[in-house]
Every structure is written in structure tokens, then in C-alpha cells.
């Protein structure tokens, strides 16, 4: 078809998309090829069907039951028809998903009297790889050539060869390359061989037809994920070639409707049903899902005509995306996208390549951009894409050139699907995958390419685009800064409580008093809830009422509608009777940034239901154990204390994810600050001048200025009004080493790494793009975005004075900043502290 026709088709899809799925406006859907979003038409048709017919459970004689049976038989036929499969040659078994279909085949082989051999292609999805565990021997083919060689060897095999199963994906779910479909036929050339073929077509059929019209060429077993074609219903299918069905005769399980007659007592006997699907569909079928499948096939055909048409459309889009991404270069001419393309694949040729582009991004100097960083920005910009290992261990390992020992070493170094340490030994451990489907349009392609250009193409040497950190020529003047505000977050991830001006607030080693003393834990998993997943937590406003001795929690904004009670109080005293008992303290494991932290949950039903109703998730309030007066071992029980290895020199640190070179690249790296690996620290300090600078840039681009609260800062330091206007020192804190606030000293521990959580508006709980977008353009160092400084209090050694026994700070107090080399000569108090 000519390109102009393709563009016309694309425009039709674009219109369709806006009509059928207005929610997709502003969202670019680039995950799960073929998960078509034509929800409205489909659900309406399904609901009409449900409202106008009475469907009973099959297996009985009632009219409703007979109707169900009749419909299901028709739909089965219709599904086979989609793949041009003759019902005399094939049968279709409904299963939960493609994996369940693979498992049925695996069980059949496992239940044979003889052992079996299993071979699978390197590009296999994990669901195929797992079959090897039940085989007596198995082999992973590391290339198509190896498969070809093995097939040729089959032809010369002697007659009584062993039972074997060969499995491969029709399309790699990693990079979308399409594998040859003639292997099953060629495996049959030797009539004596006992090799069966299993084709995983889950990825292929989402955007491509599959032709089973010649049963001599067809795989013995073909598995599909129907939801990858239609989006809904959640169903899979196993298509069995009748001539291979004898393998199921040895099946050692039966249940529900899969047998005709069962004798249980005395004699043990059962008669198996005739057809393959009757024998393999254990228990009651998901009848309503199967009805929905009928509606899905109809709507899909009406909107997109056919899988053949979808294939042309997506092939056209993918080759455009591929060439657009490939053509992106940095100012110095280096490539931006490293695309993982199979040697046999050609974009634009639908028999070798599906509409998927898998790649990693590189900096202008050839370093790898972290997937986690891309994912955060993509989330802000509403791109739905996938990163990481992509459930394809063999494909990922060979594309990324990771040896088995490296995969293992990476695993023990803490690398898991979806975490931040995704570049190890300067190799990426995962990749970015963009998948196109029936509903994708040219606009998606250009939006995505623009996104990569906007955030990852470096036009000039990085030094020029970063804000210039002012050099401090003048000595820091006592009183240039003051504490503008103090905030605590009594319940982790909920709203801030502002310390009233003039109120002396206690500061401890583990942070400001009452800061993150409580958290909310999920009743099922025990994990601490956070705004990243539950942005409405911003509308839960805790306050510390020292007069009444209570923590007061109020719901604001739209959360007030969720609950009949809008305020509760919890005693500040940690009365043990309040907590879940059995052994008095029942400890919940709150996972805070991956660390297990023991918190005790409140047993009060009122408290749990207040928070559960407000957020719409079953949770408990929990409290971290008391920490005494801030010294002794207990002081370490809160706020991920293991990270505060202050005494450790950075050069001694060899922790997974911390690279020695990091020291040279994070802001203020010339200062010998220890690096925190976690975004947890006792105190977070931000500078008003830096926030002003950031907001100027945001406003210049027409964005919405950020409030200090989104950074979850405890201390906001501002320059005094009498400082000459225009001399504000944005990001001066990068170079600070110590702070003095009133009579107290603090150490700066390093810059704070940021994620998209800073985009949750703390007044409305809505997600914005800012300030993360502007931060990532101006404060990104080595792929990490920083704003604010981790800070910890330095307790005084001389404990005889009131200010040492009860250290406090308050709003309005003067602040003095020390640079690295100013410490010892300048201040007796501080140098005494440090030398002690
Ligand atoms: C998605 C996918 C699977 C797994 O399918 P489920 O329906 O989730 O079981 C297996 N193989 C490939 C190639 C896939 O794309």
C-alpha cells in the first residue's frame, strides 16, 4: 500500500481513538503491543449482550445453560476462523493466559511414561523457559542458525528417537523480531522423529495475522494471549493440532466437566471426554469472558478491519519510529539511541520485525542513561512504556552482552527488575521497550521522538547548560541567611506540619522531633504507603498539638467526601495498650525504600478505618519505636539509619550502586561530603534562593511554580531581605559543608536525589509535570536529578548546657554556612565539635 494510504489510515485511527477513548488524550500508549483501547464500544456491546440474555452455568439441561453451551461452541469456531484453522484439524482450549496454555502442554509431556527432551530458542519469554524444569534434558538454542543445524540433523536421526518438544516465540517480546514460521513443517520431514513443536504466538498475533490453514505446516501447539489482541477479556487460548492430541492421553489429572463418568468408591475408574477442549478445560469455563470475546472480535473487526490491516499500519509506524530514533544525534555527532535489533530483522518487513523498538539511550560521551531516569520522565510526560529485563532473560542477556556470571553478580548486587541501580560495571542491565499497536498513530511516534530529543539530546557540552554555581569569594557572613520555615511530616508521605514561628523545636540525631514518627502500612503487604502510588496522602494533614498531647489528623479537599469522620486524634504518648497485641507489640514490617523497618500498628478499628476510607486502601496507622533522647543504639532505629555512615570515608565505600566516579559528578562534588544511597536522611534542607531560581525557569516556560512542600524539606533556608536584590545565590548549598542554626551545628551529607513524587501538588493531590521536568533539565548530573541537601544534626559534646541537653531550632533564627575550608579557623564551636 502506498504511503499516502497509510497516512489516511493513520488519520482514521487517530479519529477513532479520540472518539472511543477520550482518556487517551495527552497519554501516549507505548506498552503491550496490540492492547487496543476501544473500551467504550466493546463494553457497551458486551453489556447489551449481558442485559438481554440469561446465561446459565453449562452442564445442565436448562434453556439458559443450553444457550451458554451453544454460544461458546460458536465462539470457539469463530476464534479458529480468525487464524484460518479448520476445526477438523484443530481444536481450541480456553485458558487463563498464554502461560497457562504452555503449562498444559508441559504437563502432558511430563506425564508421559518416558522422559522427554526440551529445546527452546534464546528469544523465549520466561513462560517458555520454565518448561525445562520438567524435562530430563534441555537445550537453549542461542541462534537461528543453531536451530537450523539441529533441524537438519533430525532428518538423519534413526527411527526410535526420543520424545522431544521444541518451543519458540513467533515474535520476541523483547525486541519484536519475528522468527521463522517454517520450523514446525521442517521438523516433520523425518516421519520417524518424535519431535513436537510449540509456538508462542502471544506477541505476534497482537499485531499480525497467523495463518494455520495448512495443518502440515502448523505448529502442534500454539498459545495466544487474547487480551494482547483485544485488550479485554483477560483470556488465553491453546490451539492444538488434532494429529498431536494423543500426547494428552496420558494426562494424570481430571476435574470438573473434563470427564464423562467417574467411579470413586471401591473401583477407581473414569471415562475421558472426546474432544481435546473438553478434556483439557478443567472446571467451569470463564463463560462471561468467552462471551466478551465474541463482542471483542466483532468490535475489533469493525474498527480496525483485520489483523492484516493492523500489521501494515504498525509496520509502517515502527519503521518510522526506528529511523527517527536512529537519526537522533548529540551536538558532537554521537548517537543518542542504541537500538537492539536482531541481525535478521529489517524494520518495514513484517515477516522479520514486529512493531517494537528496544533500545537504550547514551549520553554525548557514550555513557548509558539509566532506565530508571527515563522511566521517571516518561511517567511525568504520560508515556506508557516498559523498561528493565522485559521477562526475556535470554534475549536481554545477549543484547546487553551480559554473561551469566554478570547476571548473577548483578542480582546479588541488588539489581532487580524495576530498581534504580540499573547500570552496573558501566553496562545497562535492562532496556527501554516501545511497542506499537492497532491504536498507535503517527502522532505518538513524533511525540515520543520529541520527548527523547527534549530530555536526552545534548546540544552543547553539559557545563554550559547547567546553572553556574556561584563561587564564594566573600567569606560567609553570619546572618546572611535565616530559617524561613521548619516543617515536619509526622506521618510519612502525608502533608507537612509547619512549626509555628518562634516555637523552639527539638532537634535530634534522627531528625526534627515528631518527623516521620508514624506511617501508614498496607494491611495486606505490610509495606509503607507513599504518595508515589497514593497521591491523595497529600490531603491527609497531621498536626502536632503539644498542649493537648495529641497528633491531630484532618482530611482536606476532596478527601472529606470519602469519609464521614474528617478528623481524629491519636495520643502522642506511645501507650503500649494502643498497639496490636498478642505479644504486646506486634511488629509490622514497613518497607521504606527497600529497608525493613519495624513499626507497631495501632489496633484501633476507628483509626484504621479513618485512613482506609480516606485513601480507599485497607491500611493501618503504625508508629516507629521510641528513640529515647537521641543517643544510644535505639537512635538508629528510624529513618534508615544504616545509611548514615558518617564516619565512613567515601573512598571506603563500596556499596552496590555507588560508583567511585559519582563523587566527581554530583553537585558540589568538590566538597568531601559522604554520599547517601537512600533518599532518606534525618533532615532535608532546601534553599529559598534555589527554589526561586527553579520557579523562574518553570514560569518562563509557562509552567506552574513549585511550592517548598513538594520537596518534603524540613528546613527552608532563605537569604536575608537586606541582601542586595539580584545577588541571590541559587544552589550555593551545593558547596556547603556545615551549617550553624542558632546555637546548633549541622553537617551537610550530600545532595538529595529526586523522583516524580515532587510533582504531586500538595494542595490538590494532582500530578503535574513540574517541577521534575525543569529540574531534570537543569539539575541532572550523570543521569540523576538533585535538589536539596541531606542534613544531620551534630550533637554537642559538652552535655552540661541546656542547649546540648535539649537542642532546639526555630523559625527566624540566623543561619551561617561553612564551606569546606572555612571550618577550623572560623568557628571555635564547630572545630571543637569536629575534633572531639
Ligand atoms: C506476553 C507474552 C507471554 C505471556 O503471556 P501471558 O498471557 O501473560 O501468559 C508469553 N510470551 C510472549 C512472547 C509474550 O509476549
UniProtKB/TrEMBL annotation:
It comes from the Eukaryota. SUPFAM superfamilies: MOSC N-terminal domain-like, PLP-dependent transferases. One of its GO terms (biological process) is Mo-molybdopterin cofactor biosynthetic process. The modification N6-(pyridoxal phosphate)lysine is found at residue 228. It is an enzyme of class 2 (transferase). Signal peptide: none annotated. Keywords: Molybdenum cofactor biosynthesis, Pyridoxal phosphate, Transferase. This is Molybdenum cofactor sulfurase. It comes from Periconia macrospinosa.
Amino acid at each position: 500500500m502506498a504511503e499516502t494510504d497509510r497516512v489516511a489510515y493513520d488519520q482514521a485511527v487517530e479519529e477513532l481513538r479520540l472518539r472511543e477513548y477520550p482518556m487517551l488524550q495527552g497519554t501516549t500508549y507505548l506498552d503491550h503491543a496490540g492492547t487496543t483501547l476501544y473500551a467504550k464500544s466493546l463494553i457497551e456491546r458486551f453489556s447489551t449482550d449481558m442485559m438481554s440474555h440469561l446465561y446459565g452455568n453449562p452442564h445442565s439441561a436448562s434453556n439458559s445453560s443450553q444457550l451458554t453451551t451453544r454460544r461458546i461452541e460458536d465462539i470457539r469456531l469463530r476464534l479458529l476462523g480468525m487464524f484460518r484453522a479448520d476445526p477438523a484439524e484443530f481444536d481450541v482450549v480456553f485458558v487463563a493466559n498464554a502461560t497457562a496454555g504452555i503449562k498444559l502442554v508441559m504437563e502432558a509431556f511430563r506425564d508421559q511414561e518416558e522422559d522427554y527432551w526440551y529445546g527452546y530458542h534464546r528469544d523465549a519469554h520466561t513462560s517458555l523457559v520454565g518448561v525445562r524444569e520438567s524435562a530430563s534434558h534441555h537445550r537453549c538454542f542461542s541462534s537461528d542458525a543453531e536451530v537450523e543445524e539441529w533441524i537438519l540433523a533430525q532428518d538423519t536421526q534413526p527411527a526410535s528417537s526420543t520424545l522431544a518438544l521444541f518451543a519458540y516465540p513467533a515474535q520476541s517480546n523483547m525486541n519484536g523480531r519475528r522468527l521463522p514460521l517454517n520450523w514446525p513443517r521442517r521438523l516433520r520431514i523425518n516421519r520417524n522423529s518424535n519431535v513436537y513443536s510449540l509456538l508462542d504466538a502471544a506477541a505476534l498475533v497482537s499485531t499480525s495475522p497467523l495463518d494455520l490453514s495448512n495443518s502440515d505446516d502448523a505448529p502442534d501447539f500454539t498459545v495466544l494471549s487474547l487480551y494482547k489482541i483485544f485488550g479485554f477479556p483477560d483470556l488465553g487460548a491453546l490451539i492444538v493440532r488434532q494429529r498431536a492430541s494423543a500426547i494428552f492421553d496420558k494426562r494424570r489429572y481430571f476435574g470438573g466437566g473434563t470427564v464423562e463418568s467417574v467411579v470413586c468408591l471401591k473401583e477407581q475408574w473414569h471415562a475421558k471426554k472426546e474432544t481435546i477442549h473438553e478434556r483439557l478445560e478443567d472446571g467451569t469455563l470463564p463463560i462471561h469472558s468467552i462471551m466478551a470475546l465474541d463482542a471483542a472480535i466483532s468490535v475489533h473487526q469493525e474498527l480496525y478491519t483485520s489483523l492484516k490491516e493492523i500489521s501494515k499500519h504498525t509496520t509502517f509506524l515502527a519503521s518510522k519510529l526506528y529511523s527517527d530514533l536512529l537519526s537522533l544525534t548529540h551536538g558532537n555527532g554521537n548517537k543518542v539511541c542504541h537500538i537492539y535489533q536482531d541481525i535478521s530483522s529489517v524494520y518495514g518487513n513484517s515477516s522479520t520485525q514486529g512493531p517494537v523498538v528496544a533500545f537504550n539511550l547514551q549520553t554525548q560521551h557514550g555513557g548509558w542513561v539509566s532506565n530508571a531516569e527515563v522511566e521517571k520522565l516518561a511517567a511525568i510526560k504520560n508515556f506508557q512504556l516498559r523498561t528493565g529485563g522485559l521477562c526475556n532473560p535470554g534475549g536481554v542477556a545477549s543484547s546487553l552482552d551480559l554473561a551469566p556470571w554478570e547476571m548473577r553478580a548483578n542480582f546479588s548486587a541488588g539489581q532487580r527488575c524495576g530498581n534504580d541501580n540499573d547500570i552496573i560495571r558501566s553496562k545497562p542491565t535492562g532496556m527501554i521497550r516501545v511497542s506499537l499497536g492497532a491504536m498507535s498513530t503517527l502522532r505518538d511516534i513524533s511525540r515520543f521522538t520529541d520527548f527523547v530529543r527534549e530530555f536526552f539530546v545534548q546540544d552543547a557540552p553539559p557545563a554550559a547548560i547547567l546553572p553556574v554555581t556561584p563561587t564564594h569569594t566573600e567569606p560567609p557572613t553570619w546572618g546572611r541567611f535565616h530559617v524561613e520555615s521548619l516543617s515536619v511530616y509526622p506521618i510519612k508521605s502525608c502533608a507537612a506540619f509547619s512549626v509555628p514561628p518562634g516555637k523552639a523545636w527539638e532537634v535530634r540525631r534522627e531528625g526534627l522531633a515528631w518527623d516521620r514518627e508514624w506511617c501508614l502500612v498496607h494491611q495486606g503487604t505490610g509495606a509503607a504507603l507513599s504518595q508515589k502510588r497514593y497521591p491523595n496522602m497529600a490531603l491527609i494533614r497531621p498536626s502536632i498539638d503539644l498542649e493537648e498531647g495529641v497528633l491531630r489528623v484532618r482530611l482536606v479537599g476532596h478527601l472529606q467526601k470519602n469519609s464521614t469522620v474528617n478528623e481524629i486524634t491519636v495520643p502522642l504518648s506511645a501507650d503500649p495498650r494502643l498497639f496490636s497485641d498478642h505479644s504486646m507489640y506486634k511488629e509490622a514490617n514497613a518497607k521504606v525504600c527497600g529497608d525493613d523497618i519495624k513499626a507497631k500498628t495501632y489496633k484501633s478499628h476507628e483509626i484504621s478505618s479513618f485512613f482506609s476510607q480516606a485513601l480507599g486502601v485497607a491500611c493501618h496507622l503504625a508508629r516507629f519505636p521510641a528513640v529515647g533522647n537521641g543517643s544510644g543504639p535505639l537512635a538508629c532505629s528510624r529513618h534508615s539509619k544504616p545509611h548514615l555512615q558518617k564516619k565512613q570515608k567515601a573512598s571506603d565505600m563500596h556499596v552496590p550502586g555507588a560508583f567511585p566516579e559519582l563523587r566527581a559528578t554530583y553537585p558540589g562534588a568538590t566538597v568531601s561530603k559522604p554520599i547517601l544511597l537512600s533518599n532518606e536522611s534525618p533532615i532535608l534542607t532546601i534553599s529559598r534562593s534555589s527554589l526561586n531560581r527553579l520557579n523562574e525557569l518553570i514560569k518562563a516556560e509557562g509552567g506552574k511554580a513549585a511550592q517548598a512542600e513538594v520537596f518534603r524539606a524540613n528546613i527552608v533556608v532563605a537569604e536575608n531581605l537586606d541582601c542586595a536584590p539580584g545577588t541571590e545565590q541559587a544552589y550555593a548549598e551545593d558547596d556547603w559543608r556545615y551549617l550553624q542554626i542558632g546555637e546548633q551545628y549541622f553537617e551537610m551529607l550530600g545532595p538529595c536525589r529526586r523522583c516524580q513524587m515532587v510533582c504531586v501538588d500538595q494542595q490538590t493531590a494532582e500530578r503535574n509535570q513540574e517541577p521534575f521536568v525543569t529540574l531534570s533539565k537543569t539539575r541532572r548530573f550523570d543521569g540523576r536529578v538533585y535538589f536539596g541537601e541531606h542534613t544531620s544534626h551534630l550533637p554537642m559534646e559538652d552535655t552540661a548546657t541546656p542547649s546540648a541537653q535539649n537542642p532546639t531550632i526555630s523559625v527566624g533564627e540566623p543561619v551561617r554556612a561553612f564551606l569546606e575550608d572555612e571550618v577550623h579557623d572560623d568557628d571555635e564551636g564547630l572545630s571543637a565539635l569536629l575534633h572531639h
